[in-house]
Amino acid sequence: MDTKDVATLMAGIGARAKAAAADLAFASSERKYAALESAAQAVWDRRQEILDANYMDLAYGAEKGLSAAMIDRLTLDEHRIRGIVDALKAVAAQKDPVGQVIAEWNRPNGLNIKRVRTPLGVVGVIFESRPNVTADAGALCLQAGNAVILRGGSESFHSSEAIHDCMVQGLKAAGLPPDAIQLVPTRDRAAVTEMLRMVNHIDVIVPRGGKGLVGLVQAEARVPVFAHLEGICHVYADRDADLEKARAVVLNAKTRRTGICGAAECLLIDWQFYTKHGAVLIEDLLKAGVEVRTEGELLKVPGTVRAAPDDFGREFLDKIIAAKLVDGVDAAIAHIRRYGSSHTEAILTENDTTADRFFERLDSAILMRNASTQFADGGEFGMGGEIGIATGKMHARGPVGAEQLTSFKYLVTGDGTIRL
User: How do residues 77-114 score in pLDDT, each as one tens digit?
Assistant: First the structure.
């Protein structure tokens, strides 16, 4: 497909999305609920279709030489399809954010003013590898009254298409415009370039993928962007940490799924914790098959390797972690400020004062205490799912769910009121 054809294709998709968004802005909660429930049922009924499509994508990914972590992100099985179904149902069951009154007040001049949630309009989602984003993004945008244009990665092309068919089936069953959820039907990268320029059709872009994709979007988009560049998540084991809690959390934060943005990429250990408990946290990681890159005293632990200068502040997305000894919470905070990406950081401590200091002095989108960074996920936050993790400071931060996909407007009521 040449550039002119892609531009024509995307212009048509954009125009249809904008028309669908106008209808969705006042669609009833009942119809959105029905669409998502029907889509969930379609995903389950057609799961073998989806698995067959995923098999083609896995073969394509293997040919491209995707890493084991990336293959894991791409892989669907019946358990993960059940997860997609559950996420769709969870979003359907949420309270409709559109029309919610955020604030209301009366003015001495006789005006009644309400700040009310309203849809953003058309959301463009550009993602890699994970085909479940097709359902998550479609559902959350629909619940928030937005139309969505989805551009999946080339490696998830067939899986995304199969899931998208189910989403459209749900829209039709509920009498909602099928153009409310559109999937770009080409692998051509020119489609991404077009989306970034579609200021007349798209109101916000959400990129979900690696540093290369997100960096490209942030650098070239003319449309506003909700994004995080990297998930460089830290876990700090404080001198007052409970040993068994720390061992469980560190291992889970790194190894549960290494290819997600909430996976821990750097372990900071307080010197006093190390003096008291030794290298047990490092040894646990090594036994689990994690490559531990470190420096100084920790290099004495058998099996560790010397860290390169850029290993601190690096998103590995693999069974690799950087580790460092620090002298107290303030040193940990200083390290995170220097190397972090404002995504998710965790402190392991039983000391309330230390935890409060960590929470107060760091400004990452998500801060945790005695909990795995793998919980940095909209579904785990009770949002049903999320369209991504936003680390910027404008509009949305952290998991972007249906509520974060709305803006607001002011409804002002008077009684023949005039300004003097």
Answer: 999 999 999 999 999 999 999 999 999 999 999 999 99
How many whole angstroms separate alpha carbon 8 and alpha carbon 326? 56
Residue type, 102: I
Q: How far apart are CA 346 and CA 316, in angstroms?
A: 18
Closest of 195, 72, 92 to residue 138, by C-alpha: 92
Cβ contact 147:176 at 8 Å: no
- 212, amino acid identity: G
Q: Using the 8-state DSSP alphabet, how is residue 123 labeled? A: E
Domains and CATH numbers, the chain: 3-226+400-413 (3.40.605.10), 233-375 (3.40.309.10)
- How far is Cα of residue 187 from the mean position of the Cα atoms in its chain? 22
Q: Residue 129 carries which side chain, given as an amino acid letter?
A: S
Q: Which tokens hold the place of 44?
A: 């389950």
How much of the chain is in helix, strand and coil states, percent to nearest 5? 45, 20, 35
382: left (phi over 0), alpha (psi -120 to 50) or beta: left
The reply to whether the predicted model has a pTM over 0.90 is: no
Reply yes or no on whether the pLDDT at 386 is more than 90: no
Looking at residue 1, its pLDDT comes to 65
Mean pLDDT within 63-77: 89
pLDDT, tens digit (0-9, with 9 covering 90-100), for 105-143: 999 999 999 999 999 999 999 988 789 999 999 999 999
As given in the structure block, the two tokens for residue 1 are 């497909």
* pLDDT-based confidence at residue 289 (cuts at 50, 70, 90): very high
Residue 184 C-beta-side C-alpha neighbours within 13 Å: 30
CB under 8 A, 24+ apart: contacts of 351-354 = 351/238, 351/240, 354/238, 354/240, 354/329
In the chain, the amino acid numbered 231 is: G
Alpha helices in 278-383 (DSSP H): 280-287, 329-339, 352-361
- Cβ–Cβ under 8 Å, residues 148 and 138: yes
What's residue 382's pLDDT? 81
SS3 at position 156: helix
Across-strand partners of 347? 236, 369
Q: Of all helices (H) and strands (E), which one includes residue 387? A: none
| Residue 167 CA, distance from chain mean position | 20
Share of the chain above pLDDT 70, in %: 99
